[in-house]
Amino acid sequence: MAVIAGVCGVVAVGSIASLVSPTTTLYAPAATAVRPMTQVAAPVPVSRMAAQRQAAYVEAAQAQPVEETIIYQAAAPAQSWAPLAGLLAIPAAVVAFLLNRSNQAKTAAAGVGAAALLSATPALAADVKLGGDSGQLAFVPSSVTISAGESVTWTNNAGFPHNIVFDEDEIPEGVNAAALSHEDYLNAKGDQVSTTFNTPGEYSYYCEPHQGAGMQGKVIVN
Protein backbone atom coordinates (compact mmCIF):
# COMPACT_ATOMS: atom_id res chain seq x y z
CA MET A 1 0.00 0.00 0.00
CA ALA A 2 2.85 2.34 0.81
CA VAL A 3 4.27 1.68 -2.68
CA ILE A 4 0.99 2.45 -4.41
CA ALA A 5 0.65 5.64 -2.43
CA GLY A 6 4.11 6.69 -3.46
CA VAL A 7 3.42 6.13 -7.11
CA CYS A 8 0.25 8.13 -6.93
CA GLY A 9 2.10 10.93 -5.25
CA VAL A 10 4.64 11.03 -8.01
CA VAL A 11 1.93 11.17 -10.65
CA ALA A 12 0.12 13.93 -8.79
CA VAL A 13 3.24 15.99 -8.46
CA GLY A 14 3.85 15.64 -12.23
CA SER A 15 0.38 16.79 -13.07
CA ILE A 16 0.67 19.85 -10.84
CA ALA A 17 4.02 20.70 -12.42
CA SER A 18 2.53 20.60 -15.91
CA LEU A 19 -0.13 23.04 -14.84
CA VAL A 20 2.26 25.44 -13.12
CA SER A 21 4.84 25.63 -15.99
CA PRO A 22 3.08 26.56 -19.29
CA THR A 23 6.29 26.54 -21.27
CA THR A 24 6.81 22.86 -20.66
CA THR A 25 6.02 20.94 -23.87
CA LEU A 26 5.14 17.36 -23.61
CA TYR A 27 5.70 16.77 -27.41
CA ALA A 28 8.44 18.42 -29.57
CA PRO A 29 7.62 18.72 -33.30
CA ALA A 30 9.95 17.00 -35.66
CA ALA A 31 9.82 19.80 -38.36
CA THR A 32 7.99 23.10 -39.07
CA ALA A 33 6.23 23.53 -42.46
CA VAL A 34 5.70 27.10 -43.79
CA ARG A 35 3.23 27.77 -46.68
CA PRO A 36 3.88 31.08 -48.48
CA MET A 37 0.86 33.35 -49.22
CA THR A 38 0.46 34.52 -52.87
CA GLN A 39 -1.38 37.84 -53.46
CA VAL A 40 -3.62 37.62 -56.55
CA ALA A 41 -4.57 40.92 -58.30
CA ALA A 42 -8.17 41.46 -59.28
CA PRO A 43 -8.85 41.13 -63.07
CA VAL A 44 -9.06 44.46 -64.99
CA PRO A 45 -11.43 44.84 -68.02
CA VAL A 46 -9.76 45.07 -71.44
CA SER A 47 -11.41 48.39 -72.29
CA ARG A 48 -10.15 49.93 -69.09
CA MET A 49 -6.64 48.68 -69.81
CA ALA A 50 -6.74 50.27 -73.32
CA ALA A 51 -7.88 53.58 -71.84
CA GLN A 52 -5.12 53.46 -69.27
CA ARG A 53 -2.51 52.76 -71.97
CA GLN A 54 -3.79 55.64 -74.15
CA ALA A 55 -3.74 58.01 -71.19
CA ALA A 56 -0.20 56.95 -70.37
CA TYR A 57 0.86 57.52 -74.04
CA VAL A 58 -0.68 60.99 -74.13
CA GLU A 59 0.93 61.89 -70.83
CA ALA A 60 4.33 60.71 -72.10
CA ALA A 61 3.92 62.65 -75.39
CA GLN A 62 2.98 65.84 -73.56
CA ALA A 63 6.01 65.46 -71.35
CA GLN A 64 8.32 65.57 -74.40
CA PRO A 65 9.74 69.02 -75.21
CA VAL A 66 8.31 70.61 -78.40
CA GLU A 67 10.65 72.34 -80.79
CA GLU A 68 8.99 74.97 -82.98
CA THR A 69 10.52 75.86 -86.33
CA ILE A 70 9.40 78.97 -88.22
CA ILE A 71 9.41 78.56 -92.02
CA TYR A 72 9.49 81.66 -94.12
CA GLN A 73 7.99 81.43 -97.63
CA ALA A 74 8.66 84.06 -100.23
CA ALA A 75 5.48 85.72 -101.53
CA ALA A 76 4.69 85.25 -105.23
CA PRO A 77 5.28 88.39 -107.23
CA ALA A 78 2.11 90.30 -108.08
CA GLN A 79 0.88 89.77 -111.64
CA SER A 80 0.12 92.79 -113.74
CA TRP A 81 -2.95 92.22 -115.91
CA ALA A 82 -2.70 95.48 -117.80
CA PRO A 83 -0.64 94.11 -120.74
CA LEU A 84 -2.91 91.07 -121.07
CA ALA A 85 -6.03 93.24 -120.99
CA GLY A 86 -4.54 95.42 -123.69
CA LEU A 87 -3.84 92.40 -125.89
CA LEU A 88 -7.37 91.08 -125.42
CA ALA A 89 -8.85 94.47 -126.30
CA ILE A 90 -7.23 94.41 -129.76
CA PRO A 91 -9.23 91.46 -131.23
CA ALA A 92 -12.38 92.76 -129.56
CA ALA A 93 -11.92 96.12 -131.28
CA VAL A 94 -11.28 94.39 -134.62
CA VAL A 95 -14.46 92.31 -134.28
CA ALA A 96 -16.50 95.39 -133.36
CA PHE A 97 -15.09 97.25 -136.37
CA LEU A 98 -15.93 94.40 -138.74
CA LEU A 99 -19.44 94.07 -137.34
CA ASN A 100 -19.97 97.80 -137.75
CA ARG A 101 -18.79 97.64 -141.36
CA SER A 102 -21.06 94.67 -142.00
CA ASN A 103 -24.07 96.48 -140.54
CA GLN A 104 -23.29 99.55 -142.62
CA ALA A 105 -23.06 97.41 -145.75
CA LYS A 106 -26.38 95.73 -144.96
CA THR A 107 -28.02 99.10 -144.32
CA ALA A 108 -26.67 100.48 -147.58
CA ALA A 109 -27.84 97.39 -149.47
CA ALA A 110 -31.27 97.67 -147.89
CA GLY A 111 -31.42 101.33 -148.89
CA VAL A 112 -30.45 100.52 -152.46
CA GLY A 113 -32.98 97.70 -152.58
CA ALA A 114 -35.72 99.94 -151.23
CA ALA A 115 -34.85 102.66 -153.73
CA ALA A 116 -34.88 100.14 -156.56
CA LEU A 117 -38.22 98.80 -155.41
CA LEU A 118 -39.68 102.28 -155.21
CA SER A 119 -38.35 103.14 -158.63
CA ALA A 120 -39.76 99.92 -160.06
CA THR A 121 -43.14 100.47 -158.39
CA PRO A 122 -45.26 103.16 -160.00
CA ALA A 123 -45.97 106.10 -157.75
CA LEU A 124 -49.59 106.02 -156.66
CA ALA A 125 -51.09 109.43 -157.24
CA ALA A 126 -54.83 108.77 -157.29
CA ASP A 127 -57.36 106.17 -156.21
CA VAL A 128 -60.74 105.96 -157.91
CA LYS A 129 -63.74 103.95 -156.70
CA LEU A 130 -65.79 101.92 -159.16
CA GLY A 131 -69.32 102.69 -158.00
CA GLY A 132 -70.33 105.12 -155.29
CA ASP A 133 -70.90 104.16 -151.66
CA SER A 134 -74.63 104.79 -152.12
CA GLY A 135 -74.70 102.46 -155.15
CA GLN A 136 -74.57 104.99 -157.97
CA LEU A 137 -72.95 103.89 -161.22
CA ALA A 138 -70.03 106.32 -161.44
CA PHE A 139 -66.30 106.73 -161.08
CA VAL A 140 -65.63 108.47 -157.74
CA PRO A 141 -64.04 110.94 -158.28
CA SER A 142 -64.87 111.24 -161.94
CA SER A 143 -61.71 113.28 -162.72
CA VAL A 144 -58.18 113.11 -161.23
CA THR A 145 -54.98 115.05 -161.95
CA ILE A 146 -51.53 113.45 -161.68
CA SER A 147 -47.96 114.03 -162.86
CA ALA A 148 -46.23 112.11 -165.64
CA GLY A 149 -44.87 108.80 -164.37
CA GLU A 150 -47.55 108.44 -161.70
CA SER A 151 -50.36 105.91 -161.65
CA VAL A 152 -54.09 105.67 -160.98
CA THR A 153 -55.67 102.73 -159.13
CA TRP A 154 -59.31 101.74 -159.57
CA THR A 155 -60.98 99.78 -156.76
CA ASN A 156 -64.23 97.83 -157.22
CA ASN A 157 -66.72 99.23 -154.72
CA ALA A 158 -70.38 98.85 -155.72
CA GLY A 159 -72.67 98.16 -158.68
CA PHE A 160 -70.20 95.78 -160.28
CA PRO A 161 -69.21 94.26 -162.62
CA HIS A 162 -67.06 97.08 -163.94
CA ASN A 163 -64.13 97.57 -166.30
CA ILE A 164 -61.98 100.48 -167.57
CA VAL A 165 -61.79 101.18 -171.29
CA PHE A 166 -59.87 104.16 -172.76
CA ASP A 167 -61.18 105.69 -175.97
CA GLU A 168 -58.40 105.88 -178.52
CA ASP A 169 -59.85 109.14 -179.82
CA GLU A 170 -59.80 110.72 -176.34
CA ILE A 171 -56.12 110.16 -175.38
CA PRO A 172 -52.83 111.86 -176.43
CA GLU A 173 -51.64 110.97 -179.91
CA GLY A 174 -49.29 108.02 -180.13
CA VAL A 175 -50.45 106.42 -176.86
CA ASN A 176 -51.77 102.83 -177.02
CA ALA A 177 -55.31 102.82 -175.62
CA ALA A 178 -55.37 99.03 -175.22
CA ALA A 179 -52.23 99.16 -173.01
CA LEU A 180 -53.99 101.59 -170.66
CA SER A 181 -57.35 99.77 -170.51
CA HIS A 182 -58.52 96.91 -168.24
CA GLU A 183 -61.31 95.30 -170.26
CA ASP A 184 -61.75 92.24 -168.02
CA TYR A 185 -64.68 92.64 -165.67
CA LEU A 186 -64.07 93.17 -161.95
CA ASN A 187 -66.72 91.02 -160.25
CA ALA A 188 -65.77 91.19 -156.55
CA LYS A 189 -65.68 94.03 -154.09
CA GLY A 190 -62.13 95.20 -153.45
CA ASP A 191 -60.69 94.04 -156.78
CA GLN A 192 -58.09 96.54 -158.04
CA VAL A 193 -56.32 97.49 -161.27
CA SER A 194 -53.73 100.22 -161.92
CA THR A 195 -52.37 102.15 -164.90
CA THR A 196 -49.25 104.33 -165.14
CA PHE A 197 -49.36 107.44 -167.33
CA ASN A 198 -46.07 108.67 -168.77
CA THR A 199 -47.31 111.05 -171.47
CA PRO A 200 -48.83 114.37 -170.42
CA GLY A 201 -52.36 115.11 -171.66
CA GLU A 202 -55.99 114.20 -171.02
CA TYR A 203 -57.27 110.64 -171.00
CA SER A 204 -60.98 109.88 -171.16
CA TYR A 205 -62.33 106.42 -170.27
CA TYR A 206 -65.63 104.66 -169.49
CA CYS A 207 -67.12 101.50 -167.95
CA GLU A 208 -68.33 99.32 -170.81
CA PRO A 209 -71.24 97.61 -168.96
CA HIS A 210 -72.53 100.99 -167.70
CA GLN A 211 -71.55 103.36 -170.49
CA GLY A 212 -75.20 103.97 -171.26
CA ALA A 213 -75.73 105.01 -167.60
CA GLY A 214 -73.12 107.72 -168.03
CA MET A 215 -70.29 106.00 -166.11
CA GLN A 216 -67.34 107.93 -167.51
CA GLY A 217 -64.07 109.32 -166.10
CA LYS A 218 -61.03 111.44 -166.95
CA VAL A 219 -57.32 111.45 -166.06
CA ILE A 220 -55.29 114.65 -166.52
CA VAL A 221 -51.52 114.14 -166.68
CA ASN A 222 -49.26 117.17 -166.20
From TrEMBL:
Residue ranges of every copy of the Blue (type 1) copper domain listed in the record: 127-222
Keywords linked to the UniProt accession: Copper, Electron transport, Membrane, Metal-binding, Thylakoid, Transmembrane, Transmembrane helix, Transport
Pfam family, one: Copper-bind
PROSITE patterns tied to this protein: COPPER_BLUE
Cofactor note as given: The crystal structure with reduced Cu(1+) has also been determined.
Cytoplasm among keywords: no
Protein name: Blue (type 1) copper domain-containing protein
Chain segments annotated as transmembrane: 81-99
Membrane topology: Peripheral membrane protein
CDD domains membership: Plastocyanin
Cofactor: Cu(2+)
Record's keyword annotation contains Transmembrane: yes
Species this chain originates from: Eutreptiella gymnastica
GO cellular component annotations of the record: chloroplast thylakoid lumen; chloroplast thylakoid membrane
MF annotations from Gene Ontology: copper ion binding; electron transfer activity
